[in-house]
Design brief:
The complex is a heterodimer of chains A (about 220) and B (about 475). Helix content of chain A is about 40%, strand content about 0%. Chain B has one domain: Up-down Bundle (Formate dehydrogenase/DMSO reductase fold), CATH 1.20.1630.10. Helix content of chain B is about 70%, strand content about 0%. Classes of the chains: A mainly alpha (about 220), B mainly alpha (about 475). Chains A and B meet through helix 9 of A and helix 8 of B.
Chain lengths: ~220, ~475
């Protein structure tokens, strides 16, 4: 009986099996890297209507975070300052600057500045800044070293897995109240000891890890 | 099956068959007439009747797709679900279809291991029925979640949320059980098809030859190939056998592990398995009776085979009936008020009509098969098989709905009735099933040719000696 298929087809099953295996690995690898919030979200850096520089205001001039973000210790939202906060200084400092024109415009008309939000959490997530600050989690743990940023960029993925990882084991991220706004804080050698004391002192139970902790 | 030929007991059985026992294939068929008969079905021009049925089946499938489309667009509110009854027809249909599959695996794997050679007449299309029934079943878990784009939550997929399915939940085991079942059944079916695909290939020309040649995997029917093949087939049968018991046991635990009265019983797994085999044989009967009539396969699927299947229906039907009564006894014996109420409510509550349809179809109907005359009457068994199908669907309805609609809190009691979309989805699932089944009848050999040839008297090594009077 004549052969139906040419001889090279003997190798076809082997090649297809190897090819399929390799493609699977490549696809998993691509999804693993490119579909992760570490890739899709970290580094988000929108251009703001006014080129406000945290680097200048925080690092060079030494403003405290809470000077503008007044709600951070007492409410769920840290808060974006109203134009009036800007004008406290800028009606004296650089009052003629072109770059500040939108701020003066806003102040004159009473229309708020349309800042573009960088750190977003979905509307089905309940997140409370004050709870985290009170427990001893500092600004830079989630936002990175804002003091070195001319334009603010997202520093962490803010994915659920990232939240949960810290909620399950927060010890490395707890600091004394005096260090909360320190942008360059790193855990000291005796961090484990401190974390244990801190949790006892503040009577912190383990952070919630069940669904309703954040999805209320 | 030549692997069996090596066993002395098989030889003596075959010799006996010649010496007076009924033959498995009647009509004086030889190897070549069998090949012509079975291959001929898929090689001749498509009969107009087939087109008519296919159009009906595809229309049914479109109804299913349309209903699913509307469900996805609008949400599960289009179904008749209400507050206590959160599991409605979707679950009923899922269990119904998965159960039907079990007969195919029982016939192909367990009867193979038990050397019941009459299985060869029906195993191929019973296995096909299994696969298509499982496909129809799998539609329902996929859509019942409402937000189908989140169906991947059912699988343990690593994800950025670090969220996993609950590994202690039988609903997750279900995914694995049915997934494994589908994979093994498909493999088993395909491996069984290889020699027959090669037979068809050798009779075909041109593109058809190439396509069949591709799927026949270079099968030449050599001695060594048969040796490997039969080992593979035996191993797959061994793998498939526990699945007959495990899949529906797991489906049963979906119910049994919850605290709902009427579900929370240890009898559920064996009772579900018996019911599954019962319902599956009902479906095999329905399909076999029609197929053998239309395609003239009376010589291969003989009345003796049908009678044997009726005996299995009688046995499993009686097991199901026994389970119903045990449930009542245990409900009374437990002394648990909620349990007693659940069962009294089943038989005499608002769903009594469904309960008694179930009882009549599943418990009374199979009892007619105590009589040989009825066991061998085609019209009787056809009607009975339809009743079995209906009864087993109602069993799942009764279990799912009666318990939920009357749970611990009388304030939340409610009566469940399906919406038009529930009904269309269910009807449409038959369209899906028959679309696959008709394609199978049209393009693949519906009888396992090589296996049927193996049970012909000529396949016995001593056949010719015997005829010359030399074997004994």
């Amino acid at each position: 009986m004549a052969q139906i298929f040419p001889k090279w087809t003997n190798k076809a099953p082997l090649y297809s099996a190897v090819g399929a295996g390799l493609s699977l690995i490549v696809v998993v690898g691509l999804v693993w890297y490119y579909a992760s919030p570490w890739y899709t979200d970290v580094g988000y850096r929108p251009i703001q209507p006014v080129p406000y520089s945290h680097k200048v205001h925080v690092r060079d001039l030494g403003l405290d975070c809470r000077f503008c973000h007044t709600g951070v210790e007492i409410s769920p939202v840290a808060g974006i300052p109203p134009t009036k906060t800007c004008m406290n200084c800028h009606n004296m400092i650089l009052p003629e600057s072109d770059r500040l024109a939108p701020i003066r415009e806003s102040f004159k008309n009473g229309t708020p500045m349309q800042w573009i939000r960088v750190h977003k959490s979905p509307d089905y997530v309940y997140f409370d800044h004050s709870a985290h600050i009170t427990a001893g989690v500092g600004c830079s743990s989630c936002h990175g070293n804002i003091a070195e940023m001319d334009v603010v960029a997202q520093f962490k993925p803010l994915s659920m897995g990232w939240c949960i990882t810290c909620h399950r084991n927060p010890d490395d991220f707890l600091r004394p109240a005096s260090e909360i706004t320190n942008m360059t804080w790193t855990p000291p050698a005796n961090q484990a000891e401190f974390a244990a004391k801190q949790k006892e002192l503040l009577d912190i139970k383990a952070p919630v890890t069940d669904c309703t902790g954040c999805h209320r | 099956m030549s692997i069996l030929n090596k066993h002395p007991q098989r030889d003596s059985a075959a010799t006996e068959a010649i010496g007076g026992q009924e033959l498995l294939v009647t009509g004086g068929h030889s190897f070549s007439t069998l090949t012509d008969k079975v291959s001929g079905i898929v090689e001749t021009k498509t009969p107009p009747k087939w087109y008519l049925l296919f159009v009906m089946a595809v229309s049914g499938m479109m109804v299913l797709l349309g209903s699913i489309g509307w469900l996805v667009w609008e949400g599960t509110g289009v179904w008749g679900l209400n507050n206590p009854v959160g599991w409605g027809w979707a679950i009923v249909n899922f269990v119904f279809w998965v159960g039907i599959g079990h007969a195919g695996t029982l016939i192909s794997a367990i009867l193979f291991l038990l050397r019941q050679q009459w299985r060869t007449a029906i195993n191929r299309f019973a296995e096909a029925m299994t696969i298509f029934a499982v496909i129809s079943a799998l539609v329902f878990p996929g859509i019942h979640i409402g937000r189908v784009w989140l169906a991947y939550y059912m699988f343990p997929v690593p994800n950025q949320m670090l969220v996993w399915p609950n590994f202690r939940s039988p609903l997750l085991w279900d995914i694995f059980a049915v997934g494994t079942y589908f994979t093994v059944s498909t493999l088993f079916w395909y491996v069984g098809l290889i020699p027959d695909l090669a037979t068809l290939r050798d009779r075909a020309t041109k593109v058809r030859k190439k396509v069949l040649g591709f799927f026949a995997l270079g099968w030449r029917g050599g001695n060594r190939q048969w040796q490997h093949y039969e080992k593979a087939y035996l191993m797959l049968a061994g793998l498939a056998t526990p699945l007959v018991l495990s899949v529906h046991s797991v489906v049963a635990t979906d119910f049994a592990t919850s605290m709902v009265p009427g579900w929370h019983t240890t009898i559920f797994p064996p009772y579900f398995v018996a019911g599954a085999v019962f319902s599956g044989f009902g479906m095999v009967m329905t399909l076999a009776i029609i197929a053998r009539k239309i395609y003239g396969l009376e010589d291969i699927i003989t009345i003796n085979h049908l009678e044997k299947m009726n005996k299995i229906i009688l046995v499993t039907g009686s097991m199901v009936g026994y389970a119903y009564m045990t449930e009542f006894f245990i409900a009374w014996y437990s002394g648990n008020d909620f349990e007693v109420f659940a069962f009294v409510n089943r038989a005499f509550g608002p769903y009594a009509w469904a309960y008694w349809i179930m009882f009549l179809c599943n418990v009374i109907t199979p009892q007619i098969f105590w009589f040989k005359k009825l066991r061998r009457s085609i019209p009787v068994m056809f009607v009975a098989s339809i009743f079995v199908n209906i009864g087993m669907w109602f069993e799942r309805f009764v279990i799912t709905v009666t318990s939920l609609s009357r749970d611990y809190l009388p304030s939340s009691w409610d009566y469940y009735s399906p919406s038009i979309w529930d009904i269309l989805t269910f009807v449409g699932s038959f369209g899906l099933f028959f679309t696959f089944f008709l394609l199978f009848l049209r393009f693949l050999p519906m009888v396992a040719l090589s296996e049927v040839k193996g049970v012909l008297p000529e396949a016995d090594p001593h056949h010719y000696h015997h005829h010359k009077g030399g074997a004994k």
